[in-house]
Specification:
The chain is α+β, with helices and mostly antiparallel strands. 32% of the residues lie in helices and 22% in strands. Strands 1, 2, 6, 7, 8, 9, 20 and 21 form an eight-stranded mixed sheet that branches. Strands 10, 12, 13, 14, 15, 16, 17 and 18 form an eight-stranded mixed sheet that branches. A hairpin with a 2-residue loop joins β7 and β8. α3 runs antiparallel to α4. The chain is globular, with a radius of gyration of 23 Å. The protein starts with a strand and ends with a helix.
Length: 557
Amino acid sequence: MDADVIIVGAGLSGLVAAQELTSRGRKVALVDQESAANLGGQAYWSFGGLFIVDSPEQRRLRVKDSFELAWNDWQGSARFDRLDDEDLWAERWARAYVEWAASEKRSWIDAQGIKLTPIVGWAERGGLRADGHGNSVPRFHVAWGTGTGVVAPFVRAARRAADAGLLSFHHRHRVDELIVQNGAVTGVRGSLLADDDSPRGVASNRDVTGSFELTAQAVIVASGGIGGNLDLVRQSWPQRLGTPPQSMIIGVPAYVDGRMLGISAAAGARMVNRDRMWHYAEGVQNWNPIWPGHGIRILPGPSSLWFDALGRRLPDPCLPGYDTLATLKYLRTTPDIAEYDHSWFILNQRIIEKEFALSGSEQNPDITSGDRTAVLRGRLFGKGAPAPVEAFKRHGADFVVARTLEDLVAKMNELTDKPLLDAAELRRQIEARDLQIANPYSKDAQVQGIHNSRRFLGDRLTRTAVPHRILDPQAGPLIGVKLHILTRKTLGGIQTDLDSRALGADGSPVPGLYAVGEAAGFGGGGVHGYSALEGTFLGGCLFSGRQAGRAAADAVA
């Protein structure tokens, strides 16, 4: 045996599993097709949001949360409807995860050295029903260091384990096959790829220079999902979300290619819930891209007006920050706009300064660097939008700015093949909305949401502008943003039990095979069901990696 356990994938879930194994004295071979520069995988690029229930940070902001409320929200979002089959383990994972998020998770991440910013975000506010999709309260805790801060402790642990002789790195090793002997997975075979010193995230070469084989008592698949592979995204696109866009931008590096899912299935692992996925409708083209087709998600506050490609305001709950998949479904299934792959935000300078954030570690240098002073100066007391947001406004291909609505619409029409927007119709809708601002109450659902948001101290300080008219000249200039579908997460994957053991077609564990993170639908083959509550992707990597590492350590003892 070359190791006690082989882990395929050096992203967050794989690193967490490695820490659990090596801390118990087990020897680990960490195999990844990318170079050492990419340790931490996709999680490194994330905003670092973590779903935590009834945390000290929430209580300081007077947010009342509980396991019961969070579990109700999760069930309303997941809508598990395959409980006798594909959702059998997914629901069990979901309950176990919410229990962890409401108990040990906060102290466990603190013990790893992950520290949280004091402001809790209110992500994915939902479908406007108590028993439906969405977070009833703010639960989105951002780590100091963003995704880099979440990944860093586990990278350090891996390097310490390597120095101690408990972990070996096998970079530029692409797994092409899981070795199966007598029904048990006993190792991996694959291709040695040529060295590549490209910076983190940049697409690397796939030049094969040789082959390799490694053996172990167990293999943990931690290879991620399919978001970087548009062919697989389109193949898995469910009919309920309409037709896949002809044009999409990509929210993950190119190495998130989904290869290991098919390889695991060939070794006997059961794939479930392949039709469940999580893509965003608020994507913009990165003006300074790192990987091919690189897109960035806007994290909007509640005030921007959202219009379809023909210039009609989207219905609730298709509001900024409310219901990701309901919005995606509306844009892809409404007959007269399904042929278009874009929609629009219209806002003004006052809104962009207060409410716009961009997802990703590199787009939030103040939080990523841990510079508390810069965060206070730039986000609480500063004037103007955050520097990365202003850079997109100046350089981004999807941003236009004008003093009048008519000039703005003319510039917006220049970004499409033919002019689809009518300035007079847009003015009618915006002025109708602006009339609702005169009172602290409203019949407009979005305006109601703005007032509700400002009742939460965190949003009032950092994420929600004072209610005002979009067309108020004092709040200008006006800004239009062309929005694209942005690929991101796979919600289905390898079905696993609560020890992260991969299950076969008959429901029994495949001996020697485990799966974690996005490859396992973040646990059980789809812990989120149909919809996610945000902050749950990194958390799913942490929880499933932890479970797999502990179970595999016991199994190979």
